[in-house]
Automatic annotation (TrEMBL):
Transmembrane segments: none annotated. Signal peptide: none annotated. InterPro entries: MCP (IPR002067), MCP_dom_sf (IPR023395), MCP_transmembrane (IPR018108), Mitochondrial_Carrier (IPR050567). The gene is SLC25A48. The lineage of its organism: Eukaryota, Metazoa, Chordata, Craniata, Vertebrata. This is Solute carrier family 25 member 48.
Length: 308
């Protein structure tokens, strides 16, 4: 049983779409906080976005991730599940053998490495669209609003225009700006995602049940998401800054330079900016993702058994 199972990819797509719908507004707040444009606090950021852009501001750039992040999560869940089964087949001779901690860690790290291939460009476009209409100090720009001393400039007309602009101005490599930081975030990040989920789900599920209940999946997924996003925050800050760089200015030469400049200018606390938003956002987003994944996977497998 070494064959690729496609139902995990389909179920991952459903889970990814559910996660985007639930988590995008807080993701917008997180991105703007981490990019370092003087919002001060999460509450002030929410108020500023609402005052300047109304409710629509929180959903800026959502159409692109709604399509692409669903595909991205399809790859994440498909790679993780199939890698885990492959490891179990190799080590125990049975792909359905419950995985050990080392098996889960290896499958999670493999998933983290694969995820950047699709997730890097998707995240880059999403962040560029989220960042482009916030205000920047006039000293950093040529245009100035005389009444406020701040400038606002729209660079991208939408995700397709943004993608084309990046390719034209920065080349194919520009699509992977911040990818090294994303690797450093996602390889350990997925370990703190799938390992807690697997063990929490097993712990919450009553003994004798063949599969976890929707509540067990929802709770375990939410807690795993909060843990994963909380621990990934420092490198997520670096990734967000590198990917936001280039909308108006080019400040950073790479990961080390971004870390160095951020620390010198704002201190150690800058790497924990957005921690609260990440942890709070991680719970409902991941709960929706795992619930969508498990329910759709169950439905797909039941249909397969009914119609072999």
């Amino acid at each position: 049983m070494g064959s690729l199972q496609l139902d995990d990819f389909v179920a991952g797509w459903v889970g990814g779409a559910a996660a985007v719908l639930v988590g995008h507004p807080l993701d917008t707040v997180k991105t703007r906080l981490q990019a370092g444009q003087g919002y001060g606090s999460t509450f002030n950021c929410v108020l500023t976005v609402y005052r300047n852009e109304c409710i629509a501001g929180f959903f800026k750039g959502m159409s692109f991730p709604l399509v692409c992040i669903a595909v991205y999560n399809s790859v994440v869940f498909g790679v993780f599940s199939n890698t885990q089964r492959l490891i179990s087949q190799y080590r125990y001779g049975n792909p359905n053998q419950p995985p050990a901690l080392t098996d889960l860690a290896l499958a999670s790290m493999t998933t983290g490495a694969f995820s950047v291939g699709i997730g890097g460009p998707v995240d880059l476009v999403k962040i560029r669209l989220q960042m482009q209409t916030q205000t920047f100090l006039a000293a950093n720009l040529d245009l100035k609003d005389r009444t406020t001393g701040f400038s606002v400039q729209t660079v991208y007309r939408g995700p397709v225009h943004c993608l084309g602009s990046i390719l034209r101005e920065e080349g194919f490599a520009g699509l992977y700006r911040g990818s090294s930081a994303m690797l450093l975030r996602d390889i350990p990040g997925y370990c703190f995602y799938f390992i807690p989920y697997t063990f929490l789900c097993g712990w919450i599920t009553p003994e004798g049940c063949l599969s976890p209940s929707p509540f067990s999946v929802w709770m375990a997924g939410g807690v795993a998401g909060a843990i994963s996003w909380g621990t990934a925050t420092p490198m997520d800050v670096v990734k967000s800054r590198l990917q936001a760089d280039g909308v108006y200015l080019n400040k950073y030469r790479g990961v080390i330079d971004c870390i160095s400049q951020s620390y010198q200018n704002e201190g150690l606390k800058v790497f924990f900016r957005g921690l609260t938003v990440n942890a709070v956002r991680g719970f409902p987003m991941s709960a929706a993702m795992f619930l969508g994944y498990e329910l759709s996977l169950k439905a797909l497998r039941e249909q397969t058994e009914t119609n072999p």
